[in-house]
Structures are given as structure tokens and as C-alpha cells.
């Protein structure tokens, strides 16, 4: 089963994604996608490590090529988060590319091996501002990817002010 958890910055989406796997029987894998670039990233990584401490997760740092992640068959898997993964795949030394198909096929591959797949993603396009070309393209790709992930998922939840709201399927 695929469960998509979406929300804005600091909306509680990561904590909710972790809660979805609390009662999972079997190995739990946390796929961390944030590359440790700079102090802000380091602080965010440490905050997330502290959040999942003692919850039984095995952490796998995977910044690109999500489908190649080595997970045990039938594991409960949490991907945190698609916004980082998209940026890692999109902005390369060779320039900007569109990695949407690569990422989505990787998600499909993981979903075939995982017993439960929780995907945490960002909602970005609601502020009405105009950004530079690269950022606008990132927002567009993120929106497309989220739409397609929502179609793939059996459950979609949006976290608002720390409150999970069922968009598709039921809350757990």
C-alpha cells in the first residue's frame, strides 16, 4: 500500500508519516533524502534523527535513484521527503533536468518490494509569488509529481497546523 502525506513547511507531515508505521510488524526503513549541505540542512537532519530515535527505524540515506534503494522484502518504508529528492535529481552539475519519470518509476519499484510505503512530500505552489526560472520549474515538477503520486496512492493525507486531513482514503 502507498500512503502519500503532504503539507507545507513544519506542518507535521514527517511526524504523521512516522506515526503511520508505528504499529507496522516487521522491519521499518526510513529513507532520508536530504543531502547535508550547510548548517540549515544539518539542523534539519538532526531534528529528524531525534524525532525517529527509538522508533525502530533503520535509516538509509538515499539522495538519488530511489528505486535502487536496497530494502528488505515486505518492509515498512518511509521516504522523507520528495522535495529533497526532486531537487537532488533535478539540479545537477550538467544543468537542470526533468527527473519526474525516473523518480516515479523508482517509487513504483519500491512499492513492489515494500509491505507499506509512506511518502512524505511538500506542497509548494500556494503562495502566489513569482520566482526565478529554475525555482518555477522545480515548483511545476513538484506539482506534477505530487499529482501523479496522489493517483498512485491508496491514501492521501494533508497535514495542516499539525492536523492530518484525509484527502483520499481514511486516516489511521
Q: What is this structure's SSE topology?
A:
Elements lengths: L1 E6 L5 H8 L7 E5 L5 H15 L4 E5 L14 E5 L1 H9 E2 L2 E2 L3 H14 L2 E7 L10 H20 L2 E6 L2 E6 L4
Parallel strand pairs: 1-7, 1-8, 2-3, 2-4, 4-7
Antiparallel strand pairs: 5-6, 8-9
Number of domains: 1
Total strand segments: 9
Mean pLDDT reading:
93
Structural class: alpha/beta
Largest sheet features: 7 strands, mixed
Could you list the spans in which at least 5 consecutive residues all have pLDDT below 50?
A: none
Quaternary class: single chain
Overall morphology: globular
Number of helices: 5
CATH-assigned fold name: Rossmann fold
CATH top level class name: Alpha Beta
What fraction of residues sit in β-strands?
Answer: 25-35%
- The largest sheet has its strands arranged as 3-2-4-7-1-8-9
CATH superfamily: P-loop containing nucleotide triphosphate hydrolases
How far from one another are the termini? Answer: 13 Å
Q: Architecture, according to CATH?
A: 3-Layer(aba) Sandwich
In N-to-C order, the SSE pattern is EHEHEEHEEHEHEE
Amino acid at each position: 500500500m502507498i500512503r502519500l502525506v503532504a503539507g507545507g513547511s513544519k506542518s507535521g507531515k514527517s511526524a504523521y508519516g512516522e506515526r503511520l508505521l508505528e504499529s507496522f510488524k516487521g522491519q521499518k526503513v526510513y529513507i532520508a533524502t536530504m543531502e547535508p549541505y550547510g548548517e540549515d540542512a544539518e539542523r534539519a537532519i538532526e531534528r529528524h534523527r531525534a524525532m525517529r530515535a527509538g522508533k525502530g527505524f533503520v535509516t538509509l540515506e538515499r539522495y538519488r535513484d530511489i528505486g535502487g534503494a536496497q530494502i528488505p522484502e515486505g518492509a515498512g518504508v518511509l521516504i522523507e521527503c520528495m522535495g529533497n529528492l526532486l531537487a537532488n535529481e533535478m539540479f545537477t552539475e550538467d544543468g537542470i533536468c526533468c527527473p519526474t519519470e525516473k523518480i516515479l518509476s523508482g517509487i513504483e519499484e519500491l512499492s513492489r518490494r515494500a509491505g507499506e510505503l509512506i511518502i512524505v512530500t511538500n506542497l509548494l505552489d500556494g503562495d502566489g509569488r513569482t520566482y526565478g526560472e529554475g525555482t518555477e520549474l522545480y515548483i511545476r515538477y513538484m506539482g506534477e509529481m505530487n499529482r501523479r503520486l496522489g493517483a498512485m496512492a491508496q491514501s492521501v493525507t494533508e497535514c495542516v497546523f499539525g492536523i492530518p486531513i484525509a484527502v483520499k482514503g481514511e486516516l489511521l
